[in-house]
């Protein structure tokens, strides 16, 4: 009797989660298409695969479907790794190498289903798989923490504080539990507790989906040349906001604070004599910027372009120019320059000094 009741509870929990995931998936599949939405949809599919792979219904399914569901469940940590990058990094773009973690996790799963390798048992392959998955989660947690200070979107900042770390830590906990039990079955109460956790995350996702879709919407490319703050400001600003915007414009255009290496939003807010949150609201609301570093880089890259196009500075090393305009090293400068200008600094210099 108790076993039948437990099985019924298990099926109800899994069915409820799958129903919510179906609704979320249909909404994510609707136009307009976006890479970030597709990655979120892939995460939803992997969670659905995880729910099916652990259910009593799996053995009754055709074996190709069984294998597909197990593979989807296996790549769930990598799907979260991709989705979190797309959500929290406005500069995220899809690259072919991003498939590698998914393929690695899936490949390890296939080897485990085939009985392992002559020199690696199934248990050892499971350890490798879980360590790789845990490394991906730790990496994305670090990325979420690193970008906290430059994020100008209040709603996304809240997600950085609890949703991203919360889900990431939960996945790490599940990986540790699975690693601890190894090939032994987990107790039923622990499986149901896991289902409750997944259900809470799924319920939140379904309730906050529209707000999440707004964050996942494609961002228009910023202009290569920074506009004067006054010319791009919203006309409905209050007198106090207009005054704050003029102080910001003066700090950028006249004092050129953007040229300070490692300038943080807190540093600029202190210089302007306003709280951090007000400066975030000003740059985001009046200037339409989503990231503080991207806002600074508009000024920095424009100044770098001026120097690179100057015949009198054609022998000046690019590293010197990068440091002069506020970058701490050449790597971030090259990436920011190519993202804004569509070419490397060297190519830009060659094209403008012909």
Characterize the structure shown.
This is AraC-type DNA-binding protein. Residues 242-351 form the HTH araC/xylS-type domain. The chain crosses the membrane at residues 12-30, 39-57, 63-84, 96-120, 126-145, 161-181, 193-216. GO terms for molecular function: DNA-binding transcription factor activity; sequence-specific DNA binding. The chain is mainly α. The protein has 2 domains: 2-216, Rhodopsin 7-helix transmembrane proteins (Rhopdopsin 7-helix transmembrane proteins), CATH 1.20.1070.10; 229-352, Homeodomain-like (Arc Repressor Mutant, subunit A, Orthogonal Bundle). Helices cover 71% and strands 0% of the residues. Helix 1 (2-29) packs parallel to helix 8, helix 4 packs parallel to helix 6 (122-146) and helix 5 packs antiparallel against helix 6.
Structure summarized in a few sentences:
Pfam families: HTH_18 (PF12833). The protein contains 17 helices and no strands.
Describe the secondary structure blueprint for this structure.
Layout: H1 2-29, H2 35-53, H3 63-74, H4 76-88, H5 99-113, H6 122-146, H7 154-181, H8 188-207, H9 209-216, H10 229-232, H11 239-253, H12 265-272, H13 276-287, H14 292-308, H15 318-324, H16 330-341, H17 345-352
Helix pairs in contact: 1-2, 1-8, 2-3, 2-4, 3-5, 4-6, 4-7, 5-6, 6-7, 12-13, 14-15, 14-16
Features:
354 residues; 2 domains; 17 helices; single chain; Arc Repressor Mutant, subunit A; transmembrane; membrane
């Amino acid at each position: 009797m108790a076993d039948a009741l437990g099985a019924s509870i298990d099926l109800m929990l899994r069915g409820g989660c799958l129903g919510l995931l179906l609704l979320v998936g249909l909404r994510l599949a609707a136009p307009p298409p976006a890479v970030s939405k597709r990655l979120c949809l892939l995460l939803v599919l992997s969670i659905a695969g995880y729910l099916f792979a652990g259910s009593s219904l799996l053995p009754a399914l055709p074996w190709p479907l069984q294998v597909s569901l197990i593979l989807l469940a296996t790549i769930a940590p990598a799907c979260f790794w991709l989705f979190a990058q797309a959500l929290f990094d406005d500069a995220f773009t899809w690259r072919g190498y991003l498939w590698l973690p998914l393929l690695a996790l899936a490949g390890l799963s296939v080897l485990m289903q085939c009985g392992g390798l002559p020199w690696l048992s199934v248990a050892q392959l499971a350890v490798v798989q879980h360590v790789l998955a845990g490394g991906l989660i730790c990496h994305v947690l670090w990325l979420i923490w690193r970008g906290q200070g430059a994020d100008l979107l209040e709603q996304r900042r809240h997600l950085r504080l609890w949703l991203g770390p919360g889900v990431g830590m939960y996945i790490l906990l599940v990986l540790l539990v699975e690693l601890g039990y190894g090939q032994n079955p987990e107790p039923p109460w622990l499986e149901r507790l896991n289902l409750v956790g997944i259900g809470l995350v799924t319920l939140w996702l379904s309730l906050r989906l529209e707000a999440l879709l707004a964050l996942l919407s494609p961002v228009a490319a910023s202009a290569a040349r920074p506009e004067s703050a006054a010319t791009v400001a919203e006309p409905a600003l209050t007198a106090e906001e207009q005054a704050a915007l003029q102080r910001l414009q003066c700090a950028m255009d006249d004092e050129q604070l953007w040229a300070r290496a490692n300038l943080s939003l807190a540093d600029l807010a202190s210089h302007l004599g306003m709280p951090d949150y007000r400066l975030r609201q000003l740059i985001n609301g009046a200037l339409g910027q989503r990231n503080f570093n991207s806002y600074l880089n508009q000024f920095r890259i424009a100044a770098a372009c001026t120097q690179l196009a100057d015949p009198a500075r054609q022998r000046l090393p690019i590293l010197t120019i990068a440091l002069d305009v506020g970058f701490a090293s050449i790597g971030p400068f090259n990436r920011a320059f190519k993202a804004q200008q569509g070419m490397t600094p060297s190519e830009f210099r060659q094209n403008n000094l012909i």
